[in-house]
Amino acid sequence: MFRSVCRRTELHRSLYSDLCRSVRAFRPSAPYDRNRAFLGCQRFYTTLIEQYKERVQKGELFEDPRQVIMLHKLETIREQLDNYQPPGSRSFFSKLLSPKSSTRTINGLYVHGGVGCGKTMIMDEFYHHIHSRAKLRTHFHDFMLDVHERIHKYKSSLSPLQLRNSQQKTNPIREVANAIASETFLLCFDEFQVTDVADAMILKGLFEHLFDQGIVMIATGNRPPDDLYKNGLQRSNFLPFIPLLKEHCEILDMDSHVDYRLLDPKPLDLPGGKAAFLHDDQRIDELFEHLTGVRVQDARPHTLSFLGRELRIGVSHGSVLVTSFRELCKSNHGSSDFRALAKTYSHVLIKDFPQLSMNEKTPLRRFIIMMDLFYDRSVKLVLSCHVPITQLINLEVSSIQAADDLRLLMDDLKLTLEEAKAMNLFTGEDELFSQKRALSRLSEMQCNDYWDLPHRPGSLESSSGSSM
Fold first, then answer.
1. Strand, helix or coil at 98?
2. How far apart, in whole angstroms, are the C-alpha atoms of residue 63 and residue 68?
3. Quick check: 169 and 133 in contact, CB under 8 A?
């Protein structure tokens, strides 16, 4: 009996030893971050360059030397990310034992160029080749909404006494940056554009803390760094961010003056029309019925509840919404509202869409923000408008008039009309970039390839932002 027990014990020890050896053999060599997220870059069978050339040979892409340069730079960053451990994620003892390695950081990449040149497509390919949970790809405007919401929640969590003490001891921006760095080591931003004074004032402090924590940033934008927030209000407070960006990111000009979205498009074949840009409201109704099986007159309003707010726009059935331009862009809706719609609805059909101009700058800005958020989540957008898509937005500076809302703002700032026109807040310089991007993306939204993309919904409770 005793001999039998000993044999079983010896057998169990042998099995346990084999199991431990197996676990050690399959243990990943790359380090883990504070949230135990795998930080290494999984080696794929093909590099970014090889995959790109394969798509060119298949006729899926047009080869562009500037795109190849960007791919090489991102491939280098991907190799550097192998076994990368951000300085902020290392324990006290690891820093004590290996002080030199604690200073190792990786420079990111800031790519600027015209719309449709392929910079976002290539960044997304890079992002998908990073085998890690500790990464984030988002629209920059969406990211800043989240930052402001985090700051607000942090301050709201403090008692009045703590708040008074925190003003001397605690920096809310640093706390938010530390929280972001604990969740991710790689930030990929689409449309890095600064137009809001509230964003401009905190960027330097925010990214200074993020870079100190070892964050790697890849960003695409329309402007070179020196032109960011050009002529913006209180720009002197924003300027220190520019050398910080140049210090931590290589700058790449990728302006090929070609919009590849407009080359060789595959037109969309929708019921009642050949495009997602329709010319009468009746065809919008027909499309709604085709997508839902329900007539528009039988659909019901739906209320979205998020962040203690309620949003009620148009009528919907399932994930399809039909509404009007006036309800969306001429009402007091902000970025958080559009983000909630983008997370909830896979298809948004808009009736009575007018030709936009700088004479009504606020609705125009709302539409451009809405377009970016919809595009980022692959929302299928269909408009009915009486003008061709190429004439949807008229942004000629010479046509600007001092509308009532602009006059009020000019009075508050004590500006003359000539001084106002010299500022991008009034001249529409930023809107000129955004207009080209919006029209380019609208063109892509009319193609089968875009409609084949799955909708990317999300939780409404992560929405944030303020009304415009």
1. coil
2. 8
3. no
